[in-house]
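Researcher: Quick one. four chains, 556 residues in total.
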Amino acid sequence: MIAITKILPRYAETDKMGIIHHSVYAIWYEQARTDFFNQIGLRYDEIENNGIMTPLVELNCKYKKPAYYNQEVEIKTKIIELTPVKFTLEYNIYDTNNNLINIGKTTLAWSDSKTFKIINLKKTNPDIYEKLKQLVEKE
Amino acid sequence: MIAITKILPRYAETDKMGIIHHSVYAIWYEQARTDFFNQIGLRYDEIENNGIMTPLVELNCKYKKPAYYNQEVEIKTKIIELTPVKFTLEYNIYDTNNNLINIGKTTLAWSDSKTFKIINLKKTNPDIYEKLKQLVEKE
Amino acid sequence: MIAITKILPRYAETDKMGIIHHSVYAIWYEQARTDFFNQIGLRYDEIENNGIMTPLVELNCKYKKPAYYNQEVEIKTKIIELTPVKFTLEYNIYDTNNNLINIGKTTLAWSDSKTFKIINLKKTNPDIYEKLKQLVEKE
Amino acid sequence: MIAITKILPRYAETDKMGIIHHSVYAIWYEQARTDFFNQIGLRYDEIENNGIMTPLVELNCKYKKPAYYNQEVEIKTKIIELTPVKFTLEYNIYDTNNNLINIGKTTLAWSDSKTFKIINLKKTNPDIYEKLKQLVEKE
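Model:
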């Protein structure tokens, strides 16, 4: 399962080099992550309403080519790792010529939204855990 | 002519009140402005490539209700004023229940992208000026 | 009482025009607002911890000259209006040559941080209300 | 040589978890990078004016603890690698209790600001190259 997200880069996201600023990609990954969850029927806002948060533990970005204002990009998102306490998504971003311009990885921890403590998703929410586990195994 | 823009609010756009941060609306207006220009066949990136810039002169926002992460908003954009040196767009933002949650106005100056000086669009680009003039008059 | 805030514009705050993006000023006003409260001994994070929030009701910005990356700006902030339910701050931003480059106004509502409902600050927190009232009267 | 940058986290930088959003750290690294260059007498805006740009090639962030609104953080920045075509800076971020809360690394390419092509800094600007080389060797 690869979720597809299309984004039209915003003017505010450009910088004085005339390209999309590098800090924006983490925000695009997050939008892709929302789409990924929406597409598998696990709305992230509902996950949060159920007392689960997923703060970032690690972020990696490789910038291969720039993105530009008003030139659509496509993000392909998949889950590449899952443990009871965290999960890793990978994002491949393509420009309109289908060039791979950026590769991202984010590792997020399953956490309690009140205490901020790590939770064991396999125990607290086995349904979500199994749903995601199947997606990892398909890769 | 009213351009329609749909935006799914991003997690990064929230603040610790749990709502979309007020500074984000100016960025949404700008995305709506890009869509407005795209829809009337005047891509803003091409306008810029032709040596014209439109820096903001004034911004007004009225916040009536909050917007929330992952709950789509719809922006209706129209041009309400045009002179040879500047123009004003109005943005009405609605939530999924069709409540008007935010009203924005932006006034932008027609400027030379090299010198940053105000230009008289009616003289430099009468085609663009007339196209927009007709839209204002229809309102 | 005029609070002074100095800000070194960030690279990420620039746009492809080579200037600071207009949406950034609302964020600078907010930093100036934090400084304003810090300087009068009312830390805004503590106000929030006491169950009060101040969502924006209205924002006005006038852009007179651009700001640039790595060229310090100075914001002078004062309170110009206070009622039991809302207050208005004004921000004047100067560049290193002491040119007034931007004027902002923000109106914020005193609200309950749980219910988001407007509160009457004069009744709920007369100490804060009186402190601010004196500052308005001095203007 | 370790450059020190102090940052007061902004309200706009928070998210609905109540903490500083993870995408903000790349912006803080960049501000720390500006300070790093300012402190060694190589203002980054002047480097750019001389036709050199440094687009990001790679970004890594490890998030150990959250940062909070209005609670100052301190960033210690040093250069850990330099070749004729790129360089890597490392950022260690501490909270007010001197806890290490975040570790970042950024690799940037020396590039021509007109063509966006990689340049060999050792040849084009040996003075800058040598200045930085000495800093790497001291580590």
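Chain C touches chain D through 17 residues (CB under 8 Å).
Researcher: Thanks, that's what I needed.
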